[in-house]
Each structure stands twice: as structure tokens, then as C-alpha cells.
Design goal:
single chain, about 180 residues, mainly alpha, Arc Repressor Mutant, subunit A, Tetracycline Repressor, domain 2, 2 domains, 10 helices
Length: about 180
Amino acid sequence: MARKISVTKDDILKAAFEVTLSEGLDSVTARKVAAKAGCSTQPIFRVYKSMDDVHKDVFNLAAADFHSFARAHNNDSRNLPFVGLGMSYIKYAIKKPELFRLLFLSQERYGMSLYELLNGEDGEIRREIEKAQRDGCASPENLFMQMWICIHGMACMSLTGDFDLSEEQSITFLKERYYQWKN
């Protein structure tokens, strides 16, 4: 009679994601994942060829987590283009710093460009660019780059504790930049 498999790929991925969430992807080792999953390292290598494959799946899960978070926190349709999405990006850096580092501060994106990562399957960036174009922006792609440099800087400053604007102040700041750079 064959042994029953009690630790699934989902269990392993969930454990690896939890380690990443608290300690970062560099801390995702077979031993740590096994300890978190409550198993030996054997089930990990039964399911995955290498820890690099685990890391790639964690990255993809983190990207899905970011998009879910962004949709949930970019719910004010009155916001100007890039402001709501920008605020969700900043909030993600504050609430999930290790996942933010993995997605947006790592050179390894498993073949995905920053634009593809931000745009996601739902086309969030494309929608924001189209919204700016409908708002009369002369060069919405250029505006996106200017806004995103500012938004990314604000998010990175939150990781070092150097970002001390309230949410209201941040929104005002981004709106001011939008109007300043719109034309």
C-alpha cells in the first residue's frame, strides 16, 4: 500500500510565502520551509526540483498578492490617474515590506518587466494611462513615468522610515504632481 501524501505543493508554497512575508525571499530555505510546513525537507524536493523553483512560485504568488491588494486599496474612482494606484503601491510597501522588496527592489523578476509586473493581468497601468488621456493629458505615458518615479521614491522611503506624510498629505502631494506634470 502506497504512503498517503500529507504535505501538498500548496502547503509547501504557503509555508514558503509565510517565510518570505516575515523574513524575505533570501530566508526561504528548505529547512525553514519544512519547519513552517511541519514536515521534513523530503516533500519539498518531491514536489520541486530546486529551491529556485520554490522561489519562482513565491514570486508569482507575491505578484498576485500585490494585485489583489492594489485592487482592494485603489477603490476611490474620484482619484486622478495614478493617484489611487500610487497610494496602494505605497501602502503595500508599508504593510508588506518584504514582499515589496521582492517584487520591486529585486533584480530577479523571473522574466517579467517592471511594467508587466505593475500592469498585471487586469491592465491597471494601461487603464490609468487611458484615464489620463481622457483627462486631456498631452503625454500620458510620460506622465506615468514621472508619477511613478515619485510614487516609487515615496514607497522606498517608507521602507527606511524616512516617509512621514499622512495618507491625506500623500494624496495631496500626488494630486499636485499630477496637475503640475499633466500638460
